[in-house]
Amino acid sequence: MMKQLRSNSMLFGANAPFVEELYESYLSDPDSVPDEWRTYFDGLKAGAAAAVRDVAHTPIITAFEQMAKRGPVRVVKGGEGNKRQVSTLQLINAYRFLGNRWANLDPLKRNERPHVAELEPSYYGFTEGDLNEQFNVGSFHAFSTEQASLREILEAVRQTYCGSIGSEYMYISDISQKRWIQARLESIKATPSYSPEQKKHILRRVTAAETLEKYLHTKYVGQKRFSLEGGDSTIVAMDELINVAGTLGAQEIVIGMAHRGRLNVLVNTLGKSPSELFAEFEGKAEVDLSAGDVKYHKGFSSDVMTAGGPVHLTLAFNPSHLEIINPVVEGSVYARQVRRDDAKKNQVLPVLIHGDSAVAGQGVNQEMLNFSQTRGYGTGGTVHIVVNNQIGFTTSDPRDYRSSLYCTDIFKMVEAPIFHVNGDDPEAVALVTALAVEFRNEFKKDVVIDLICYRKLGHNEQDEPMVTQPLMYRKVAQHPGTRKLYADRLVREGVCAENEPDQMIQEYREHLDKGELLANPVLSGHNRKFAVDWTPYIGQEYTDECDTSVPATELKRLAERLTDLPEGFVLHSRVKKIITDRAAMGRGEQPIDWGMGENLAYASLLVQGFGVRLSGEDVGRGTFFHRHAVLHDQSRERWDEGAYVPLMHIQEGQGGMQVFDSVLSEEAVLGFEYGYATAEPEHLPVWEAQFGDFANGAQVVIDQFISSGEAKWGRMAGLTLLLPHGYEGQGPEHSSARLERYMQLCAENNMQVCVPTTPAQIFHLLRRQMVRKLRKPLVVITPKSLLRHKEAVSELDELAKGQFQTVIGDVEKLDAKKVKRVVLCSGKIYYELMAYRREQKIKDIAVIRIEQLYPFPADKFTEELGRYPNLKEVVWCQEEPRNQGAWYWFASRQHLAKVLGGKQQLLLVSRPASASPAVGYYAKHNQQQKEVIENAFGVISE
């Protein structure tokens, strides 16, 4: 066939798939194609390299492919005519790559157009005399014919790629995605064609955006609202996004955004009543929360009608930490998709609205993008809208707040197409929004709208930007506003009468005076099939009491299911021993260890209809080789085959089980899991840190969502954190889960902090988290060495009966009257204290475990102390340094002191105060640990 093509010097369109397949193979591995073709492609690549820089699919190769598709077209073998033809195709491709650099994107027009040689015809040797010459347009979609003059081609590529829209997508490796974008943009030359009524609708949206801001500015002078003025087209984008998404089958849209324009989106997109907003400006609270939050952090939900049917809108509550809401939204969306069994991810759409400085500056976005296409965290693509004020924070110098050309360059890491658009062209904004939603729906990946605008006022309404940005704000002061520019344009076009735009303003203001919307999009009384009923959990008084027992016969059945593997499934020898032992545990022949107790807890919840989701960097196996919730067939030949999850196969009709080893991220993943928990009360989401200190990287999520979300926004979440902790000589980081940080955050029964020490305790604790009608975050300080400690085991009967014990009294028979000292502790150190007491044959010192540090179980604790009538000393013993651990919380809250009432002396035994969580020298660790144990029993180290 190669000889036939060479001899005829022709490439026919019918051969295009064959040629493209060869070319793709050549790109991956040049040696995979026949020698003649490799030589030919090498020659084309060498010829293109001299003309075009940094192009993955070189223009000359693209020309070759497209001529083959358009055929018959003669293969370029030389000659001036052929050279100019190739140069024409190179020029078209250059605009696809670089045309955005010349696009009319800045409403303030502050910068001159940069010099981009590749966009000049002269770069390819063209002169004025060539402008009327006809050339083949290759794959360029702007013409209905194969031929066009160079002048027409230049006009078309510049209109398509250098107008109000600047597109970036040629870095995408999937050719079908690039072709899809080219077909849609180039066929209309990136120019929308809206009817007069559609244009009036767009004007009404811009008018609503601007008028609301100006109304608030005069009604509530000086109050912070983080105005959208200058970025008014955001409301146009949201309007178009919702309507297009609805027509494509979306039934829910979850939105995350920070402050800028939030109030405007609440009113003009979600349909929040202006009267409610005004009440918030006046300091009135609709719901009596213990803390509440400022108005520009609040969330909202509503149902609106689109051409495709009703769509439920949710704007997530957002703290001040800017982009941190983004993974929370993704987690909420994922939970909703699971609830709907939305495997195609068409029904629930995540939308994130960013600021230009924050999207590039906040590392959580990189983490989130990194998991956007993974199995356990991918939501089928997110539509990102960057409200690009071109300034970041008020005092930003453009030289200082990013290193990339565009603030959106971060999205290139996942090959998301980016559509830069001039915010002063609302029709272009609507066009790229529709394009973005359609792309996401087609390819299930992220897509970005970079809405380039400006900020009329300062960072907030009390800020004066002229102090640090005099040049920019002179331009801003001269700008008439997006609404005025668009209104004048529609008047010139004859779409609007001269006084019609002003009438729109007056009409909108009159409705604001009444505290109502001009056109309320909200559907009242809409009954959603997949809505979650949180009422069973609202207003519940906190209680520790909950029957979490499971009959022994059922536990034995669950154990059988957990250890029953598919026929021929080959386990690793070490894992086989674990599974064999678990089978014996289920039969009551061996005591239950930690891993089995935990797996039985999940299995028992699943058969009750609850869902379970395990997430973290090594949760399938378990960092400490203890969980083995996911088993791997050692005979498998492919990496993506041979994994078996027994918890997914307990019985028909069980709850859904998810186990996902996460990307190497804490902040974004934990934010995702919190979002999941807020959307799904009937699932147990569990996030496990590899070591407890790994949660340090997610402290923002813990501080601003997990510990305070209910107090600020009334948002409940049953998220569980498993944080391995224990001083075993593993150095400063991998000893401590920073328990003190969680204790400091405890108040108002906002969350639970527990330190279970037996498999029965973790079994009942995890079950309590779902069986009890409370949805509070649970922080579990979990063990490392105890996972295989010979004494940290439980009998099957302990799981079959009882409940989680917040306090465990001394388990050995002591003469209570002889006890003069009680040692209080939590966690691993208990077993070391007991070993020392037995070794020293101490009979007058009791050891009590506090298994729940918060809410502090005062009644149970008082009851245990009451067993010792002659008690003189109470010692709090902890492994952590005295300035860490639970001690300062106990001391500051006086929980222990209140119970003692001055009748006994309260003492502390701990490591010395330290700037580091633990020592790194193993010998020093051992010496310190020895001293802590001895001091607890009154032995003073020399």
TrEMBL record:
Residues 592-789 form the Transketolase-like pyrimidine-binding domain. It comes from the Bacteria. It catalyses: N(6)-[(R)-lipoyl]-L-lysyl-[protein] + 2-oxoglutarate + H(+) = N(6)-[(R)-S(8)-succinyldihydrolipoyl]-L-lysyl-[protein] + CO2. Its EC number is 1.2.4.2. This is 2-oxoglutarate dehydrogenase E1 component. Keywords: Glycolysis, Oxidoreductase, Thiamine pyrophosphate. SMART domains: Transket_pyr. GO terms for cellular component: cytosol; oxoglutarate dehydrogenase complex. One of its GO terms (molecular function) is thiamine pyrophosphate binding. InterPro entries: 2-oxogl_dehyd_N, 2oxoglutarate_DH_E1, DH_E1, KGD_C_sf, ODO-1/KGD_C, THDP-binding, Transketolase-like_Pyr-bd. PANTHER family: 2-OXOADIPATE DEHYDROGENASE COMPLEX COMPONENT E1, 2-OXOGLUTARATE DEHYDROGENASE. Belongs to the alpha-ketoglutarate dehydrogenase family. Homodimer. Part of the 2-oxoglutarate dehydrogenase (OGDH) complex composed of E1 (2-oxoglutarate dehydrogenase), E2 (dihydrolipoamide succinyltransferase) and E3 (dihydrolipoamide dehydrogenase); the complex contains multiple copies of the three enzymatic components (E1, E2 and E3). E1 component of the 2-oxoglutarate dehydrogenase (OGDH) complex which catalyzes the decarboxylation of 2-oxoglutarate, the first step in the conversion of 2-oxoglutarate to succinyl-CoA and CO(2). Its cofactor is thiamine diphosphate. It is an enzyme of class 1 (oxidoreductase). The lineage of its organism: Bacteria, Pseudomonadati, Pseudomonadota, Betaproteobacteria, Rhodocyclales. One of its GO terms (biological process) is glycolytic process. NCBIfam families: 2oxo_dh_E1, PRK09404.1, PRK12270.1. Gene3D superfamilies: 3.40.50.12470, 3.40.50.970, Multifunctional 2-oxoglutarate metabolism enzyme, C-terminal domain (3.40.50.11610), TPP helical domain (1.10.287.1150). It holds the Pfam family Transket_pyr.
